[in-house]
Sequence to fold (190 residues):
Amino acid sequence: MRCVLCEKLSFKAICKPCVGRLLSENKKSRILDNKLKVYSFFGYSSIAPILHVKHHFWGHRVLNQIAKQTFGKFAERFSFKDKVAAIGIDDVPQSGYSHTAILAKALKSPSIIPVYRALRATNNVKYSGQSYDFRRKHPRDFSVSLKGFSHAILVDDVITSGLTLKEASECLKKEGVNVLFALTLADAKE
Ligand SMILES: [Zn+2]
Fold:
């Protein structure tokens, strides 16, 4: 099989040199205007091929490999006084698997518990390719279903405008949940 990123022969979905190159990238962070901190592992262009693998089985494996090496390693070093829910944005499977569910799952640790479908967009408008103004005028209207947690980490594959993460964190706050920060695989602002 071939590495998804460089197309050289590889036993894993992403070959060792590509993993090394990816992991040496500087992490990025942003603070949204509602004070939510967002940490991203990569720039979007470095991992775009990973997010666009079309074959379900293969796409799942590729994302799993990179999620373990980023979200997984993060979770190993993270500890908190209380149980924290890891909540993926839009973790409803599309074409067989959900990016954010795989990322949230990789955070599983003694302190972090992935909770699936805790946030559901009641407005399924597609943001991809839309302007900031369009996104701002069409909120996702998340409904929250989370029991037994007062702390959460939000998880998404890519941060673009940050509007979705901001809206999600506001919805959780309204339900009395403290959002510690958000983690995304990639930041589209490079
Ligand atoms: Zn490679």
In short: The radius of gyration is 16 Å. The beta strands are 28-31, 37-43, 84-88, 112-115, 119-121, 142-144, 151-159, 178-187. The pocket of zinc ion is lined by residues 3, 5-6, 8, 14-15, 17-18 (CB under 6 Å).
